[in-house]
Amino acid sequence: MNIDNILSIKTRIKDRFRTVRRTAKMSQMTLVQRSGVSLGSIKRFERTGEISLTALIKLSQALGYEGDFDNLFVRKNYQSIFDVVRDGGEHAK
Fold first, then answer.
1. Which of 18, 25, 37, 61 has the smallest count of CB within 10 Å of its CB?
2. Which band of pLDDT confidence, cut at 50, 70 and 90, is reported for residue 84?
3. Using H for helix, E for strand and C for coil, what is the string for 22-54?
């Protein structure tokens, strides 16, 4: 994976995070209080995409998205194209 791919992934994640926070009508300060993550860390994450895994999990919990981590690094082993279609192709690669 090259640096452009990494930057692209970080940008998508930080943009989705900011959208979710704003859609929830949650200020950065409210998120600080609910998550225990510092304001500086939240601002840096929304600006650059840089954040520790622990802080990202705390922010996800505060926004109700901690379950999304359960499927990280999970890939199903499909036996046929029919399995992919039946499953909706969520984890197919």
1. 25
2. confident
3. HHCCCCHHHHHHHHCCCHHHHHHHHHHCCCCHH
Tokens of 41: 């860390």
Q: Which amino acid is at 81?
A: I
Distance CA 23, CA 5 (A): 27
Q: Which residue has the tokens 């993550």?
A: 37
Q: How far apart are CA 51 and CA 41, in angstroms?
A: 7
Query: Among 1.10.10.10, 3.40.50.300, 2.60.40.10, 1.10.260.40, what is the CATH number of 3-71?
Result: 1.10.260.40
| pTM (2 d.p.) | 0.76
Cβ proximity of 74 and 91 under 8 Å: yes
Do the Cβ atoms of 92 and 84 come closer than 8 Å?
yes
**What is the C-alpha separation between 89 and 74, in angstroms, rounded?**
13
